[in-house]
Amino acid sequence: MSHVAVLGAGSWGTAFAKVLGDAGRDVTIWSRREVVAAGIRETGCNPHYFPDVRLPERVTATSDAGKAIAGAEIVVLAVPSQTLRGNLADWRPFLDSDATLVSLMKGIELGTTKRMSEVVIEAAQVPADRVVVVSGPNLAPEIARGQPAATVAAGIDLRRATLVQDAITTPYMRPYTNDDVVGAELGGAVKNVIALAYGIAEAMRLGDNIKATLITRGLAETARLGVALGADPLTFAGLSGLGDLVGTCHSPFSRNRTFGERLGRGETLEQAQAAVGQTAEGVKSCLAIRDLARKNNVEMPITEQVERVCHEGADPREALTILMTRTTKAE
Ligand SMILES: NC(=O)C1=CN([C@@H]2O[C@H](COP(=O)(O)OP(=O)(O)OC[C@H]3O[C@@H](n4cnc5c(N)ncnc54)[C@H](O)[C@@H]3O)[C@@H](O)[C@H]2O)C=CC1
Ligand SMILES: O=C(CO)COP(=O)(O)O
Question: What is the ipTM of this complex?
Answer without folding.
Answer: 0.98
